[in-house]
Amino acid sequence: MAGNQLTVGGVVVSRTEIVNLRELRQEVCQVNRALFTSGLVTMHSGNASGLDPVGKRMVIKPSGVDYESLTPEMLVEVDVESGEPVDSALRPSVDLPHHLYLYSRMPGIRGIVHTHSNYATAFAACHQPIPLCLTAIADEFGCEIPCASFAECRDNDLGRSIIESHTSAPAILVANHGVFAWGESPRAALKTATVTEDVAKTVHLAMQIGEPRLISAESAAKYYDRYQNRYGQFDDSSSVNTTPR
């Protein structure tokens, strides 16, 4: 067995998968509060969650709680197998079923962010993807940001719509609804949601001037490879990129 792996409950996992639940609560709380301070959400809308894949737990924002008053202890811990809260006096976000559905069907993601940010949601209201017309889109997503079909909020309808329409891009618009973004951590999901809104605004402004010109898939692939694999700082001892992307 490789030095960076170990067995937990009969399952071989990477040491990086061992999650301190207290630290996860802190990170998810910080990400939720950042959604509000960065203007990606208003009032109580939106939410962020984080997953502990080994302990089979996730933590998510409680329903209807002010972002400014949110603390790590207020986050709702959920058993991902049963979908039930664990020892919480607060109810989880009503978007909990969507988060659970995505975690169960997208191996490797450890954080999810949901927003109704203005410019990206404007595209969703028109059932339009955000076109691949900026190098910033190529860098972060590698392709256009797709738009999933409209879905009711009951059961797993919305989650199924996302899974049916998602691409290699780590974000998606949901028609008439908003944005879902994900990543290898809650912070990574926050960055993706932030970039989604930023490029949506730029593309909207471009559309006021004329017709945005698309970047070819070949060129986009080159930009994506450069940004994902050569941008930022690396830890020489492990060859791991230490720059948040």
Which key phrases capture this entry?
two-stranded antiparallel sheet; 245 residues; alpha+beta
Structural class: alpha+beta
What letter string, H or E per element, gives the SSE order?
Answer: EEHEEEHEHHEHEEHHEE
Total helix count? 7
Cα distance spanning the termini: 30 Å
Categorize the overall geometry. globular
Number of strands: 11
Question: Which whole number gives the mean pLDDT?
Answer: 91
Largest sheet, if any?
Answer: 7 strands, mixed
Arrangement of strands in the largest sheet:
5-4-3-6-9-8-7
Helix content: 25-40%
**Rg:** 18 Å
Question: Which runs of at least 5 residues are low in confidence (pLDDT < 50)?
Answer: 6-13
Give the topology, please:
Blueprint: E1 5-8, E2 11-14, H1 21-37, E3 47-52, E4 57-60, E5 76-79, H2 96-105, E6 111-115, H3 118-125, H4 135-140, E7 147-148, H5 157-165, E8 171-174, E9 178-183, H6 186-209, H7 217-229, E10 234-235, E11 240-241
Parallel strand pairs: 7-8
Antiparallel strand pairs: 1-2, 3-4, 3-6, 4-5, 6-9, 8-9, 10-11
Helix pairs in contact: 2-5, 3-6
Q: What does this protein structure show overall?
A:
By secondary structure, this protein is α+β, with helices and mostly antiparallel strands. Strand 7, helix 5 and strand 8 form a beta-alpha-beta unit. It is globular and about 55 Å long. Helix content is 36%, strand content 18%. The longest helix has 24 residues. A 7-stranded mixed beta sheet has the order 5-4-3-6-9-8-7, with helices on both faces. Strands 1-2 form a two-stranded antiparallel ribbon. About 3% of the residues have low confidence. The chain starts with a strand and ends with a strand.
